[in-house]
Specification:
This is Excisionase. It comes from Pseudonocardia aurantiaca. Residues 1-33 are annotated as: Disordered. Residues 21-33 have a biased composition (Basic residues). This protein is mainly alpha-helical. The protein has a domain at 118-154. It is built from 7 helices and 3 strands; from the N terminus they run αααβααββαα. The protein has a 3-stranded antiparallel sheet with strand order 1-3-2. A hairpin with a 2-residue loop joins β2 (92-97) and β3.
Length: 154
């Protein structure tokens, strides 16, 4: 720009920044309008969470698992797991998960505590005896099918 005295007028950088900040939000430069590229995708968050769990397992010799996984692998109810870590019978950690804070427990400690519980032992014995009964019944059905096939051939 050239002023009345034919001297170039220097643009004030703070003035242009001030003018841009007063612009309507839709007129602002794209870097101010949309920051969605900064938000990680759901898959990225899940992958980062899985990496954190793997790091926890590497730091300790025994794996730290979620309550749901411990419940599924050991066969202990979630309420029993909560009771055990609240009473200090097993160790637990509270970490950030994909849906908020998540409780982790040591799988080996859960297995040891479950082995010491008479109620869980009785349930396991019942389940084993049921499995044994099912196996015996399958064997008897197989024998009866063989006998029936032999009778049909005659």
């Amino acid at each position: 720009m050239v002023g009345p005295s034919s001297e170039p007028i220097q643009a004030d950088p703070t003035a242009s920044a001030l003018a841009r900040s007063r612009l309507h939000p839709l007129v602002r430069p794209a870097r101010h309008r949309n920051r969605r590229h900064d938000i990680p995708s759901w898959e990225d968050r899940l992958a980062r969470r899985q990496n954190e769990l793997e790091l926890f397992e590497q730091l300790d010799e025994t794996p730290w698992v979620t309550l749901a996984r411990a419940e599924a692998e050991v066969g202990v109810s979630r309420s029993a797991l909560r009771s055990w870590y609240r009473n200090g019978e097993i160790q637990s950690r509270l970490v950030d998960g994909p849906n908020g804070p998540q409780r982790l427990v040591q799988l080996d400690a859960v297995i040891e505590r479950a082995a010491a519980s008479p109620r869980i032992q009785r349930r396991a014995e019942r389940e084993v005896s049921l499995e044994a009964q099912v196996t015996l019944l399958r064997h008897r059905v197989d024998q009866l099918e063989l006998r029936l096939a032999a009778l049909e051939r005659k």
